[in-house]
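User: Run a structure prediction on this.
Assistant: Running it now.
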Amino acid sequence: MIASLRNVLLSSAPPLPGHDDEESKGQFSLSRNDFLRMAAAGAVAAGMSGKAMAAGATGAVPPVTDIDLLYDAWQQRFNDADLDGLVDLYMEDVAYINSDGVLMTGRDKVREDFAGLLSIKPTIVLGNRKHYVYRDVALTTNHWRMNFTNPDGAMQEMTGGGIEVMTRDPRDGGWRYIIDDASRSAS
């Protein structure tokens, strides 16, 4: 796409000021506004929203601002083995209890736990999702089913539940876990 845009610009650009056509062939002048419009058009053509474009420019993951989509985002990122995207759904000082009942504090511990888990290439389905919102805090529950292949090649299934507390992050408006207990059944 970039090469196509460059070719269009080269073929339609006027000569640089103070240069004849032959001397400035293959060169063009582009204002900052023209460049930004062109970048925005390219991003739209690539299917990126303004927030995603901004996040892509900084390397950050776009926040999930609709709590109804948070479990979908978590499940998708987990199943895609998107470790950065998954960890971004947690506050920096999160209290995380993994499926073995081990309490871990902070994103770094969440990253370590998920890195090990994602290495076996599991898939998860989050069902029976519920959330109760009070201002910028939510209590959520779910049941999950995870499938993975053992080292001997046998398919395994684990089931469980999660009880979480989420908050809206004041920095970007995204919902993030502040307490995540994946060690119990959410009945």
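Helices lie at 2-12, 32-45, 50-58, 70-79, 83-87, 107-118.
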